[in-house]
């Protein structure tokens, strides 16, 4: 079945992770990066998760999952190494209204976590529909090498200039035409060389010389 792509805002949202192993750690770290409020249910934590717990970045319920644990969570990740526990927690979480990810059972999951590359506000994601996480990882490595940090800087510049341009170009059509023509590889090369001011100048120049009359 085709998946529906969406990028979630998780700031302040309650998310639960059942299990404290390597898979749980990977999920927890990206949840924390997205600002989620994370609770981990597991008798044991990896050293990485323990560190996060000691630093107050997650809440830890230091025991196995129990029925009734999963009220008021937005997302629930079932990531223990016990298939039966994962299945039970998934069922309970769905009954409580959460969206569920089951680490060892894609067919029971409401969503999958994609491989991803972050460049500032630019987020590139890769999904194989659960078919091959190893392929997703390989593609992530290739795409990361192709789209470096300069794309994050470039996006930040463009995002800053967009409201200014909105005032200058009256219609959506004009703005669309301008931006399609202005996404320009030379400014990217300048950013790659660390020439931030020159790159900004270049984009500003294109912006200032454009108007309904030009
Ligand atoms: C992308 C990434 C995100 C993340 O987890 O952060 C992610 N898995 C990653 C890595 C990875 N996972 C596995 C391997 C070993 C090689 C292999 O099996 O291919 C590797 C590669 C490695 O580690 O080298 C094993 C594995 N994974 C799943 C199962 C269960 C099953 O298939 O039945 C098993 C078998 C366990 C077993 O055999 O016992 C299931 C899922 N893994 C997903 C996501 C979802 C589908 C995403 C998609 O659409 O592709 C889905 C469905 C659910 C979910 O977890 O959301 C992350 C890449 C991080 C990066 O970018 O480097
Ligand atoms: N989705 C993925 O990306 C992916 C990748 C690799 C493996 N897997 C699957 O994910 C599962 C977990 O992998 P792992 O490497 O993190 O395992 P792990 O053995 O390192 O960790 C399992 C954790 O679950 C905890 N646990 C066990 N029973 C529990 C219960 N009833 N309640 C709460 N916590 C409990 C353990 O204390 C431990 O912390 C495996 O079943 C594996 O097949 C998924």
UniProtKB/TrEMBL annotation:
In this chain the Siroheme synthase central domain maps to: 119-145
- Please write the reaction equations for the catalytic activity of this protein: precorrin-2 + NAD(+) = sirohydrochlorin + NADH + 2 H(+)
Is this entry keyworded NAD? Answer: yes
Top-rank taxon: Bacteria
Describe which pathway this protein belongs to, using the record's wording.
Porphyrin-containing compound metabolism; siroheme biosynthesis; sirohydrochlorin from precorrin-2: step 1/1
Q: Domain Sirohaem synthase dimerisation spans what residues?
A: 151-205
Keyword annotations for this protein? NAD, Oxidoreductase, Porphyrin biosynthesis
Alphabetized Pfam families for the sequence: CysG_dimeriser, NAD_binding_7, Sirohm_synth_M
Q: What is its EC number?
A: 1.3.1.76
- What name is this protein filed under? precorrin-2 dehydrogenase
Q: What is the lineage of its organism?
A: Bacteria, Bacillati, Bacillota, Negativicutes, Selenomonadales
